[in-house]
Amino acid sequence: MKFFFVLNGKKIKQLSIIIVAAFFTAGILFVERNEMMVFSTSDGPQAFYKAKTDEKVMALSFNISWGDQRALPILDILKDKNVQATFFLSGAWAERHPDIVKRIIDDGHEVGNHGYQYESYPAWDDDKIKKDIRRSGQVLTDLTGKKPVLLRPPHGQFDKRVLNIADKLDYSIAHWSVNSNDWENPGVDKIVETTVKGASKGDVILMHASDSAKQTHKALPVILDQLKGNGYKFTTVSELIASTTTKSKEIK
Predict the structure, then answer these.
(1) pLDDT digit string, tens, across residues 103-120
(2) What domain count does the chain have?
(3) Where residue 38 sits, what CATH number does that domain have?
(4) Which one of 17, 84, 127, 202 has the minimum C-beta count within 10 Å?
(5) Domain range for residue 13?
(6) Where are the beta strands (DSSP E) in the chain?
């Protein structure tokens, strides 16, 4: 029987975990839209999802894999609110929109790798996964002048094998702890409520800047104003990782 864990904090190679339960299935699924997340065991590289911190700080993260209509309004809002975020970009998308990638970098945001073909990694063999990560990484390096260090696999899907491949390619997998569910387009008020009520110290918030997320740019300024009003500050995912202590969480 297997147990599954997500690392909260800096990536470490070995972590001793006390197993406290014995009657659960061998897998855990995390679903976002048709996106599935399989968390790794405690043996080996871990996925960052939340910082353990006493400071009222969190990170906004945006996935982009399609379209060019939503990203710029979101960038305008972040600039107006003086907020830096982390953008996980599909390599294929970045090739088609180098001007938006440049704007992301010029505005001081962090860029992470979101794969190239935007297909599920666990269904692929090792070599295909490596080629996809490397191809996207090279595109982003060429466009930004800096190799990304964070990877958020396409569709949010990964397993222990993908974690190990990413680690060998010098990437840390970055997940999230608060899902705004903005891809569902449930209404601006619902996106705001889901995000603000679910947010706490050290969280990584998942949002989207693809064209399919039609209400994110309307909800974002309200979210930022409310969270700032509650005393929160924003940073990039890498800065959140660097400032945190290590913690593990058992997922049943």
Answers:
(1) 999 999 999 999 999 899
(2) 1
(3) 3.20.20.370
(4) 127
(5) 4-251
(6) 4-8, 29-32, 35-38, 57-64, 86-89, 110-113, 150-151, 172-173, 178-179, 204-208, 233-235, 247-251
